[in-house]
Amino acid sequence: MKGVNEEDRTEGSPVGRRVVLGMLGLGAAGVAVGASVQDGVSRALAPVGPIGDVLPAAGGFRYYSVTGRVKRRSAATHRVTVGGLVDKPQAFGMADLARFPQTVLERDFQCVTGWRVPDVEWVGVVLADLLDAVGVSPKARAVQFTSFDGVYTESLTLEQARRRDVLVATQMEGKPVTHDHGGPTRLYVAPMYGYKSLKWLKGIKLTEELIPGYWEGLGYDQHAWVGKSNGRDDVPT
């Protein structure tokens, strides 16, 4: 991981629901106010020792799960279903996803609770390409994402979902996305805070209305742009 020491990562140490909910107020403030608050939250968390089952070390990824331990899925049998308001509902295995054009994005990964990992390289299928493959109904206005943990959900407007910096990610830092990082497949929404990049991606459903995700139901912002308020600048083509 570029810029991150091995000992800074807490991969495999889940952040329990109680601890994450305890950070909710700080996270919501960060979405509303912006990067300066995020930096302050990061500094506040860095010197603190273990809290429950999270170790907020300065710098590395944290492992978050709203359900505790999540059962692993084999890449050989894993499927991502795409359905709802589409012409041709399909289930895509890893080999199917590999046949699509692959896009590489290298961006900072910013968590709403304050920590950031710089220059993370992601590889995967642009979500818009997957949507084009199944044919989106004119009635569709939004996209809902479900996790195979059985609880975590997220959503984007159809316009947001069609950005070229939104991926169904299959690789991270040159290797398959690990289970702890949300593999075999996870959503990666580059211009938004990390909770929008749903882990353990199982299902993609086109809907008529925007359905708030798990964290939005607990007070987080639906449109969680990092930095720029409208989120429309610097869209890669």
TrEMBL record:
Pfam families: Oxidored_molyb
Domain named Oxidoreductase molybdopterin-binding: residues: 69-215
Signal peptide start-end: none
Matching Gene3D superfamilies: Oxidoreductase, molybdopterin-binding domain
Protein name stated in the entry: Oxidoreductase molybdopterin-binding domain-containing protein
